């Protein structure tokens, strides 16, 4: 299982340049080339967007993970720091994808590159490609069929990380309005403090206790997996290790008549 932590700018300043430290910049390519953290490698978060969770779609995700992580020269021994512009959902999506791939040591730069006051550079580092082999961690990903089973049994908590309007069925990014039956609403605004950094773990844990019991597996979904990935990060940091992302989220559930929808 992955060890997911935060990296402060001060921590990164003390560790940057160490041989086993790999910084992954998840911002748009134009922003990366305009100036990035020294030695940072670029990775596009959209590579890990999933629209379905059938076997073929997951096989494609595994292939993309193997190709992209090999291309940036990642090794399993590396300590990875994921850096977005700030604490946006795309940085969290990459952190979740790395955790799912079985990368053991992952940190997110809290506050992102906007919190970094050190030097930047505009030249990409020379890296040697590796033969990275993902080790998919099933505990971190839930398929639509697993969500359906959880909805029927109630043994696992389904967490809706969309807006209140989406949860209440007032609007939708997909064909149908509503929510997964039995899902609990989670306000993603609770994940960040007023300064945009991640909220204290104890505070998130206390608020999450109203939605999911300690030790109970939480399956988080949103519209397309991004918001759910940041909720995954926040809950992991708060000690909810048994948290999974339903990456296809409402893009799959809301467009397939085989999955039930709750509207009341």
From TrEMBL:
Its EC number is 2.8.1.1. It comes from the Bacteria. Residues 17-125, 152-262 form the Rhodanese domain. Pfam families: Rhodanese. Keywords: Repeat, Transferase. Coiled coil: none annotated. PROSITE patterns: RHODANESE_1, RHODANESE_3. InterPro entries: Rhodanese-like_dom (IPR001763), Rhodanese-like_dom_sf (IPR036873), Thiosulfate_sulfurtransferase (IPR051126), Thiosulphate_STrfase_CS (IPR001307). GO terms for molecular function: thiosulfate-cyanide sulfurtransferase activity. SMART domains: RHOD (SM00450). This is Putative thiosulfate sulfurtransferase sseA. The gene is sseA_1.
